[in-house]
Amino acid sequence: MNVLTYLHGFSKRAYTVMEVRTGFATGLPVLSGSFFGAYLTGEIHFLYMILFFIAGFCFNIVANTANEMRAYLAKEENEATFTHHKGSEGLVRGDAKFLDAVFVLLLMIALGGSCGLLLVFLTKDLWLLAWGLVGLLAAITYSLGPKPYLLYPVGEIVSGFFVGGLACYLAGRVQIGSGSWQLLVYSVIPMILTVFLMSTNNVGDYEKDRGVRVTLPHVIGFRNAILLVIPEFLLLFSCWVILLATQTIPCWQFLVGCLIFYRQGWQRWYKDYWKISAVYPEMGKEYGPRPLLLIYHFNTWMSLLFFIQIMGRKYL
């Protein structure tokens, strides 16, 4: 193989197997968790934040790429399952080859692992090292190995725990230097937002996954999987109320969060989603990105608001 010929267009091919959009589903909870931890202490460690963001993003890409590799090897994907999301063409529908996916996987492990090890070296936090290794193992074994756990109805909670909750909590812990109950309560919110994303994808893939893997909607039923969002949201909102009631966050920030939940969670997603009685071919394309927008908006706005308050305390 001519190396120069292979490298030509590699970045474009690699992009199609990475699912960069969902990679930020980890990166943004890391960002808001970091700013929340800094908000609690009044001091931002930007280097720690950047290193953690890169590591978290890379490990999510590892999980995405491993998932694409498994789908290709198991012949689970075809034109009928294509959602036509730009940048998610993958190994079946795009120009990328299996070797491209292998290189992406190794590159992301190397980059994310290097940033994680440097962060451990700087913070001297061995708990961070331990959870980082467990998180990397979970990212790989989600799809690859003799018994990948995506075959079982635990993917939503495991992904929510690692991608949303744990990533947010550890990022905040790095800023604080230790754990805190406020950070634990706050981390439940990104965890459940990630569960929303995973559950919506599983509901949209209800028929496609039948006979291939057993997801939670197969166990509790299509409609019940949609309605399960309601008690999950009540838990999320209870955590948001606790942060207000304990004066951890100001009232105006609480209201901004409520506005995001209403606009991105209700109006743009659940208002129509909860009425669906049966899966249809375009469901994944139509509803899959909507919880992702909720993740984007909540974590981005909270990061910005925490940053503004930190700067306000420091300079005003």
Automatic annotation (TrEMBL):
It is found in: Membrane. It is a multi-pass membrane protein. Pfam families: UbiA. The chain crosses the membrane at residues 20-39, 46-63, 101-121, 126-144, 150-171, 183-200, 233-262, 293-312. InterPro entries: UbiA_prenyltransferase, UBIAD1. Keywords: Membrane, Transferase, Transmembrane, Transmembrane helix. The keyword Repeat does not apply. The keyword GTP-binding does not apply. PANTHER family: 1,4-DIHYDROXY-2-NAPHTHOATE OCTAPRENYLTRANSFERASE, UBIA PRENYLTRANSFERASE DOMAIN-CONTAINING PROTEIN 1. This is Prenyltransferase.
